[in-house]
Amino acid sequence: MTGELEEGMLRRALWTAYSDDTTRASIISTVANYAMSHGMTMAEIEAATGLTGFDLVDPERRLPDDVLPKLWNAFAAKSPVQANPMELARAAPLSVFGGLAHGAQFAGTLRSALKLLSDNAILLSNSAVITLEEDAHEARFISHHPKNAEDGGRMSQFAMALAVRLLRDLEGAQDFLHRIDFAQPANGPVESYERVFGVPVRFDQARNVMVVVREKLDTAIRHANPELFAYVEAHFAQERHRLEESMDPAPLKKLRRAILRNALSGIYRPAQAAAEARMSLRAAQRLARAHGTTLQRLIDEVRMAAARALLAAPDSDIANIAAIVGYADERAFRRAFRRLVSQSPSAYRADHGRRVAPAPGGFL
Q1: Distance CA 360, CA 23 (A)
Q2: Closest listed residue to residue 321, CA positions, set 336, 311, 312, 331
Q3: 343 φ, ψ (degrees, to nearest 5)
Q4: What is the largest CA-CA distance in the chain?
Q5: 31-35, 55-59, 103-107: which has the minimum mean pLDDT?
Q6: Rounded distance, CA 159 to CA 53, Å?
Q7: Gap between the Cα atoms of 337 and 347, Å rounded
Q8: Which runs of E-coded beta strand occur in 187-325?
């Protein structure tokens, strides 16, 4: 690798293109803008995460899950007193949730609004799991993300507070909370959490839970519109299906991730891809064929994704890119790139090269 930013670009491009573990960019840009409004620079964000301003411009873009804990931790190290998720939850726009925030206002009841959020968590983050449980006494809105512990719980605490704010904005849905539990410690005074939620908040619990007064689940929402809500539900069902269709089948995912891990170390050989996946070479080749591809094609796809990401940086050297993506020399790389991408590296750079765009201005 030739530098931290180039390495970050490569890692981000590969994992965004081929990993299911992604998060909606609007969530990441909200945290980044908050950090910058409290003194963190874009250069510091780049160094911590590999993100550039270009990555934060499109709210619909999806970025690797590991970016958020890196960003929160870097900001907490720089401004530990200000790294309170409750402050961000009070200021952040509800559009962080994308169309879900708008669609929830047409729900008939608080239950259907909560169900809309839980059913469509994948649209916010592929790894997020949200469930709604009920018994005779209470309802529990339970959220989990495998990265929760990596940032000390900051992202889960912010997301829960923003979800409560969204639900309270629905006319008629007010005094529905009974208690909040978080799996990680508090990131700031407990009083600041209880001011935001208005109910007792417990930390270091088994899971992240919004405990709802069960009778309130049938609270009617003033702006309910059954026809519009049916459209909203159908639309998000299509979005979920499209996202799920883009994911690799589980067996192929294992092989693809092995190729990715090798690629991040500059290794692009079939035998080593199979070994990284803990398979024989023959078994890996059979698996790829069973899913309508070949092991070499999977490796070449990753190579070209890496090459395209690096070519987008206008000052990166083509000979160096050739070495990074595993070609013996620049000439071999140029031949392969033209064959696989139907363009020369220079032509691709002319069409797609960019200078780093500034991050979106202003927090709100």
Answers
A1: 18
A2: 311
A3: -155, 150
A4: 70
A5: 55-59
A6: 23
A7: 11
A8: 201-202, 208-213
Across 86-97, average pLDDT: 92
Question: What does the chain come to in residues?
Answer: 364
Looking up tokens 């909606």, which residue turns up? 24
pLDDT digits (tens, 9 = 90+) for 10-46: 665 665 555 567 888 899 999 999 999 999 999 999 8
At residue 249, the 3 state secondary structure works out as coil
Residue 10's pLDDT is: 67
Domains of the chain from N-terminus onward: 21-83 (no CATH), 84-247 (no CATH), 250-352 (1.10.10.60)
Distances in whole angstroms, Cα of residue 127 to Cα of each of 79, 106, 180, 352: 28, 27, 22, 30
Separation of alpha carbons 199 and 211, rounded Å: 10
Identity (one letter) of the amino acid at 15?
W
Structure tokens at 167: 């639900």
Both tokens of 309, joined, read: 């990401």
Structure-token pair, residue 5 = 């930013």
CA-wise closest residue to 154 among 72, 54, 223, 39:
72
Q: How far is CA 50 from the centre of its chain?
A: 14
Instruction: Determine the Cα–Cα distance for residues 184 and 73; give it in Å rounded to an integer.
Output: 14
- Return the amino acid letter for 75: F
- pLDDT given at position 11: 64
Over residues 2-6, the mean pLDDT reads 51
